[in-house]
Request: fold
Amino acid sequence: MPTDISGTKVAFLLGHGVEQAELTQPWAEVKKAGGTPVLVSPESGTITAMKGDWDHADTFDVDVEVKDAKAEDYDALVIPGGTINADTLRIDTDAQAFVTAFFDAAKPVASICHGPWILIDAGLAQGRRMTSYESISTDLKNAGVDWTDEECVVDGNLITSRNPGDLEVFSATLIEKVAAATK
Reply:
């Protein structure tokens, strides 16, 4: 599979409380493959990541506020998890509209851990085959998802994984999907 995504832009949608590894590892892989990652957030300024649900980690600069972001400016979207991050994003109407625009354009969307919560609130989960962090599996099932406990699930343009332990395959699948969609 091709792994060169030079010239592409990949939006990372997140806010405070993002699981740091779920941001930094796919971000590094996008850069390594030649793409440009862009941090999109409902917040302005900086966001603070977490290591698990209790430990504050590093801060990251926001590149674009989600209210000003347009899916047409990006080739793919990554939605990292983190309980606080995902719970806040899922009810943000600008974030929901941004995610929906990627689905409408059939662009790759990759979501890990608690990240898929926003797909429920945006009305994008029903009928999909997905995985996630186990604690939100019932939420996804109740939203009409065919949930499975697998390392990485691809359903059309949607890529989902369970947790930081799946980041290697999650990131590789993201790069492959972006390369295939932009060649």
Notes: The first helix runs from residue 20 to 32.
